[in-house]
Amino acid sequence: MHAYRSHSCAALTSANVGDNVRLSGWVHRVRDHGGVLFIDLRDHYGVTQVLCDPDSPVFADVEKVRSEWCIRIDGNVKARDESLINPKLPTGEIEVYIRDMEVLGHAAELPLMVFGDQEYPEETRLTYRYLDLRREKMQENMKLRSDVVASIRKRMWDKEFREYQTPIITASSPEGARDFLVPSRLHPGKFYALPQAPQQFKQLLMVSGFDKYFQIAPCFRDEDPRADRSPTDFYQLDMEMSFVEQQDVFDTIAPVLAGVFEEFGGGKKVDAPDHWPQISYRDAALWYGSDKPDLRNPIKMQVVSDHFRGSGFAIFAKLLEQDGTEIRAIPAPTGGSRKFCDRMNAYAQKEGLPGMGYIFWRDQGEGMEAAGPLAKNIGPERTEAIRQQLGLGIGDAAFFLGGKPKAFEAIAGRARNVIGEELNLIDEDRFAFAWIVDFPIYEADEETGKIDFEHNPFSMPQGGMDALDGDPLNVLGYQYDLACNGYELVSGAIRNHRPEIMFKAFEIAGYDEAEVRKRFGGMVNAFQYGAPPHGGCAAGIDRIVMLLAGEQNIREVILFPMNQRAEDLMMDAPSDPTSDQLMELGLRVIPQD
Predict the structure, then answer these.
(1) Per DSSP, what are the bridge partners of residue 215?
(2) What is the pLDDT, as a whole number, of residue 355?
(3) Are the C-beta atoms of residues 410 and 291 closer than 8 Å to each other?
(4) What are the tens digits of pLDDT across the range 148-181?
(5) Phi, psi of 459 (to 5 degrees)
(6) Cα–Cα distance measured from residue 76 to residue 5, given in angstroms and rounded to the nearest whole number
(7) Distances (CA, A) of 80 to 48, 62, 85, 86, 429
(8) 3-class SS at 44?
(9) DSSP code for 333
């Protein structure tokens, strides 16, 4: 017999009754039923109930075991009494009578319990992550992650992509976040960087003639943590294709992601890829207040400025006299009560706004009545016009925000989400996808008027060189994101592979050709030798798994994540370097005041 096990703790069934078996695992739970000891023995695959009574030659040893001891047992498989069968377990029809036992690893007093669903502080969970990972939910999350990655790989190979590995130690390359720098021992005073993404390398692969590339790539960015973002590193499905347009990329990646969500989504509805809407960046900001909208929420905001111009509501009327201002409405079907409207007004105040105006419509017996301070100020005609524009009726409400859109769009988007949640308008049993397209390449500083890049500077401008001859603020790029249930899952672009267009695009933002060559010389030089049109995208593995696992925090689907302060509490990182290390690298640490 094998030294540690003949079966896993999920393998035994009634067909094994009478067999002599050997199992190894962790003591999940111990129960004493009148002198008979029952142990739930757990391994990676499942749980088997084993038992020991005073007739067993190792009863005295079994009495000593405690939670999370690692043990090996030999025993006989017996059928459970029919009344004691546990249908929730694959091994629920049997139990194993212990004849011999060996302790493979003792466990000290536990800082957190593996059995049960107790909540523990994040500091405790991350310090003892190896114990936290033994918990059933964490085991399932990490198995799901592994299965998702395997499925993605197979689906990409099926689409005739090949996987290539790009460098981890490279040059610093601005990708919108801070680099992690690595000092060079052989070149004192110089630094490598960990790649924020394989962006330049995958484009160089296209220049090298590798038509379809993908990689499950580690990426490193020194960022502030969020619930849906790691502060140090993450993994993405990175892909690039040659001789493609934007729609070709959509048609390639959409079935891959839809298939993954159908396979692992637990039966939730997955929108068909050919029905994923393509929404312009500006429309997404207007309708949803976000470039990663949650389309499970049916609320779509609208501009209602005309109804307030010259109206009796002086705040909005005067606001609209200023250039670049507008009034937007957030419809709230079924939200037509003063209590709910006051609650949302308080929400806006908590977000830093003076409040949100509102109107709600109620049945007064003789017909519909518009209620609320706004309705009284602007009168019945304007109120009715607003109701008709928004398609609302009795029992509904609308909330209003005004000013320059960039100042309130994000808050309006969050308010839309809260309204949808509070009114139970969100279809929780669905994965809703949307392509966000037509990103503007440039923006102007409000104070100085200086033109700079608003989004990816390496995207091909729509219209090519001709587009760069007009107003920069009207230039759109072939850049796109994919949103799902309020999260950005994919970001990508058709790349600017023409050096002359690249130099012109950067010139508009104040970077001359010499600066572009200095910062991106490797890629610019390569583009001078017959670069093909190409484009691609990257999909966040961590966020995909987070959505599929139904988790709200990305750390629940990462094996060994950092905490909110970008610290590894288990391995004590970051740590102080030794004097010898600093001397070898020619570095000195300046004490912080």
Answers:
(1) 238
(2) 83
(3) no
(4) 999 999 999 999 999 999 999 998 876 667 899 9
(5) -75, 145
(6) 13
(7) 12, 21, 6, 9, 38
(8) coil
(9) T
